[in-house]
Write a structure and sequence with these properties.
By secondary structure, the protein is α+β, with helices and mostly antiparallel strands. 39% of the residues lie in helices and 18% in strands. The chain has five helices and four strands. The strands form two sheets. A two-stranded antiparallel sheet has the order 1-2.
Length: 160
């Protein structure tokens, strides 16, 4: 029996994007949203946090982006659609088919993360955040793992 402190109401949400460019190493960008279980505190990401992730990827890569969304309801928010239209010179957004996680390379990252933290016990929410960040950093700096997530989809990246 393992005893832990706390109510167990907190959770950590992760938004991430894998980025590929022919001839360059792959990149993985992510954001964490920590919910402490407090009344009135947002439980999940808001549309502007996804917007900020897109902007960060664009600024870091210095390149136009082709962004592929799954069908999470916040991805379809009118504010994100307006943002994409406003930045059509460097951003293209495509909806992935419903129920097709096998086409999303980010799903491979989540699988790697789940395997990496399977045998860890976090004493509290901040401990869980530390473990998740450490494991995501390890994935970020191992390009062969990120490449493997793309090859697991069967998709290929070809220059235009």
């Amino acid at each position: 029996m393992v005893r832990v402190r706390g109510r167990g109401n907190g959770r950590v949400n992760i938004a991430g994007a894998v980025c590929y460019r022919p001839g360059s190493r792959p990149h993985f960008f992510y954001r964490l949203h920590v919910h402490h279980g407090r009344k009135g505190e947002p439980k999940t990401f808001a549309w502007h946090e996804y917007r900020d992730l897109i902007i960060t990827a664009h600024q870091q890569l210095h390149a136009p982006l082709v962004w592929c969304w799954d069908n999470l309801n916040v991805h379809l928010a009118k504010e994100l659609v307006a943002f994409a239209e406003e930045h059509a010179d460097w951003l293209r957004i495509f909806q992935m088919p419903s129920y097709a996680p096998e086409l999303n390379p980010a799903e491979g990252v989540w699988s790697l993360l789940k395997r990496a933290i399977a045998n860890f016990v976090a004493p509290d929410l901040s401990g869980l955040v530390r473990i998740v960040k450490r494991k995501l950093k390890k994935i970020q700096f191992r390009p062969h793992l990120i490449d493997g997530c793309l090859s697991g989809t069967g998709l290929i990246i070809e220059p235009w």
